[in-house]
Amino acid sequence: MHSQTCQVFCIIPSSHKRRSSPPALLARARSRSLGPQLCEAQALGCRGRTLGKQTTHRDVTCEAAENAAGPSDSDRPSSRALDQEIASLALPTLATLASDPLASLVDTAFLGHYGSIQLAASGVALSVHGVFTKLLNMPLLSVTTSTVATAMGEKGGVDGEAASVAASASLLLGLTAGIIQAAVLMVAGGSCLGFWGAPAGSSIHGDALAFLRIRAIGCPTTLLLLVSQGVFRGLGDTRTPLYATLACNLLNIILNPLLIFGCKMGVVGSALGTLIAQTIGAAVLVVALQRKVRLKLAGDAALDSLKKFVAPTGWLTLRTMSISGAFAFATSVAARTDSIHTATHQVCLQIWLAASLLADALAVAAQSLIARYLSSNNQQAAQDVTKRVLVLGFGLGFIMMTILGIGSGRIPKLFSSDPAVLGLIAAIWPWVALSQPVNALAFVWDGILYGANGFRYAAKAAVICAVPAVACMFFGLQFPSSGTAQLAWVWCGLIVLMAMRIATLWIPYRRRLPPFDKLFIKQASA
C-alpha cells in the first residue's frame, strides 16, 4: 500500500494551572499501511492513552487520519463470523423463497380436484398476471434491497434517517406501481386472455377473467408485500419477512379449500383467498417496518428519494426482459416438437429452477452485505464477502450436481409416470445435473453485481448473454425431424446463457472495471 501523511492535533492542558489558551502539540506522522495503526500519532496517546502524569484532559482530532486510512482490520469480520452472517441472511431467505412455490403447488392441487376447466382457467390467468407483474416486481425487490442496505451503511444504521427515507420511498414506489399494474390488468386483461388461448366464448374465458380481475385488485398489496421483504433484507433482517411469508401462505392454504369447496366459489375462491392472505401479510410487514425505521410516507424526503429507485428498477426491468425472453424462446422451441418433448422440457426446467433457489438465497445475502460494507467504505470486508460467497456458491452447485446425479433414477418419477417422458428426461438429465455449478455461480454473481449497484451494467450484460443463448436454440430448429436434437440445443442454449452471465461479470471484476472497481481500495500516489 502507498504511504499517507496525516496530521493529529492533541490539545493537552495542564492540571495545575488554568490557562485561557492551553498549549497545543502538533504531531505529524506517516502511515505506511491501512491497517489498525492509522498513524504513529496513536503511539503518543491520541487514542486515549495517558501522555504523562500531569495530563488530565485531552481533545483529540484524528478524523482526518481515519478518513485517509479507511476501515481498519478490526472492521473486517472473521471467517467464522462472516459465514454466520451469510447464513443468518441466506437460510431464512431460502425458506421464504421456497414457501411461495410450495403454496402455489397446494393451490394448484385444490383446483385440480375441483375441476379441469377451473385448473386450466387459473393457469392461463396466472400466466397473463405473471407477464405484467414479474417484469417489475423482481427488479424492484432487488433495487430495494441494495438501496436500503446502502442507506444502512451510510448513516446511522437502522435508526438513521437515510434508512427511514429509503424504506419509505420504496413502499411509495411499490404502492404506485401496484396501482398501475391493477389498472392495466383490469382494462386489458380480457384481451390478453385471448392471446393466451382463452378468447371470449371459450370454455375457460369466464373463469379466467374472474380469477385475473381479483388477482389484479391485489397487485398493490402484492407489491407492498414484496417491497417490504426487500426493505427487511436491506436492513439485514430476513427472519421477519420469513415469519410473515410463512403465516401468509399458511393462511392462504387454510382459506382456499374453505372458499373453493366450502363456499363453492371455485377459481374465484382461490383468487380471493390469495388476496386476503397477501393483504394481511403486507399489513403485518408494514406495521413491523413502522416500528423499526419510523416510516415517513408523506414526507418530501421520501418523494425526493424516489429517483434513486426509478432508474435502477428500469435497468433491471430491461435485464429481466432479456433473460425472460431467452427462457420464453426455449419454451417456444420445445413446444414446436410434440407433447412428450414439451412435457420433458417443463419437468427438467422446473427441477433446474428449483435447484437454483439455494443459490438465489446466497445471492440475496451477498447483495445485502456487499452494499452495506461498500456504503461504509469497508472495501476489504466487501471483498471478503465476494470471495466467500463465490466459494460457497461453487460448493453448493457441486452438491446439487451430486444430488441430482444420484437421484437421476428417482427424482423424475416424482413429476411424471409416462415411460416416454421418463425416457427423454434420462437423455436430458446430464445437462440438468452437470450445469448446477455454473447455474449456482451465475446467481451468486448477480448478487455481487447488485450489491455493487451495477444495475445499469446488468441490463447491458443481459443482452450480451441472451444473444448467443438464443442463437444456440435457434440452431436447434434446423432439426425439425428430431425433437430430441431440438431439445438438446435448447438446453445447450440455457447453459450458454448461464455461462455468459458468469463471464460478463467475472471479466470486469478480474480487471477491476466498473461497476466492480468500488470493491477495491484505490491506491493514490503518496
UniProtKB/TrEMBL annotation:
Location in the cell: Cell membrane
Listed GO MF terms: antiporter activity; xenobiotic transmembrane transporter activity
Primary residence: membrane
Keyword line: Cell membrane, Membrane, Transmembrane, Transmembrane helix, Transport
GO CC annotations on file: plasma membrane
Transmembrane segments: 171-196, 208-228, 240-261, 267-289, 389-408, 420-445, 457-476, 488-509
Top-level taxon of origin: Eukaryota
Membrane topology, record value: Multi-pass membrane protein
Entry similarity comment: Belongs to the multi antimicrobial extrusion (MATE) (TC 2.A.66.1) family.
NCBIfam families assigned to the protein according to its UniProt record, in alphabetical order: matE (TIGR00797)
Name the record gives this protein: Protein DETOXIFICATION
Organism: Apatococcus lobatus
